[in-house]
Amino acid sequence: MDNKDAEMKQEEEAKTQEVVEDAGIEYTLQADLQEIEPTDEAATKIIDKINSEDWKQQFYGFNDLRSFYKYHPKEFETYLPKFKELIKEGVDDLRSSICRNSLILVNEVFSTAKDLTEKNENGDITPYDDFAVEVLPLVCKKVADDKEFLSSKAVSASELIAQHCTSRRITESLCELSDSKSIVIGSQASNALRINSLRMDEEQIKNKDNIEKLLRVISEDLGKQYQISSPNKMNIVFCTVVVVYSCQYVFRIENLWL
Question: Are 49 and 57 contacting, i.e. CB atoms less than 8 angstroms apart?
Answer without folding.
Answer: yes
